[in-house]
Amino acid sequence: FAATSIVPFDGLSLQRRGPQLQVRLHNPLDRSLEGLELRAHYEGCFGKPANHLIRRSFAELAPGDLVQANFDGNLHLPEDPLGRHHYALNSIQIVTSNQDVLFDFDRPLHEPELRFSCKNS
Predict the structure, then answer these.
(1) What is the CATH number of the domain that holds 99?
(2) N or C: which end of the chain has fewer CB within 10 A?
(3) What is the residue-wise DSSP string for 6-63?
(4) Which 3 state secondary structure label does DSSP give 120?
(5) In a domain, 77, yes or no
């Protein structure tokens, strides 16, 4: 493994739209990204740590193309047998690769305008 350069990644755009987060991903590379997954990583709104992932999959993102997904900021999962029903969106993860690039990215939602809390769960 060797890195030939490091540049800031500006292909991800996040915008809160009421109870949802809009995620837009633009491919700035000169090659396609294959097996792309946008993941919403939720943390539990109860005493013990627990998480939940929601995945949106795309077969390929060609150079210059854009994908978009919306994720709920809060989840209620009544089917959880342990009674862990409420979750808040904590980060957006991007996982993809191609012959030359491996992309494993976790973008926390620390900014107040993007953060979802457990108070309404």
Answers:
(1) 2.60.40
(2) N
(3) ------EEEEEETTEEEEEEE--SSS-EEEEEEEEEEEESSSS--EEEEEEEEEEE-T
(4) coil
(5) yes
In a domain, 45, yes or no: yes
Q: Rounded to an integer, what distance in angstroms lies between the CA atom of residue 88 and that of residue 72? A: 9
Render pLDDT for 29-70 as a digit per residue (tens, 0 to 9).
888 999 999 999 999 888 777 889 999 999 999 999 999 999
Domain count across the chain: 1
Of residues 75 and 100, the one with the higher pLDDT is 75
Residue 113 maps to a domain? no
Kindly state the tokens that stand for 64.
Answer: 């210059």
Residue 63 resides in a domain: yes
Q: Is residue 95 a contact partner of residue 104, using CB atoms and an 8 Å limit?
A: yes
- Structure confidence by residue, pLDDT tens digits, 83-105: 668 999 999 999 998 777 788 89
Give the chain's radius of gyration (CA, Å).
Answer: 16
Closest of 90, 53, 88 to residue 74, by C-alpha? 88
9-30 mean pLDDT: 94
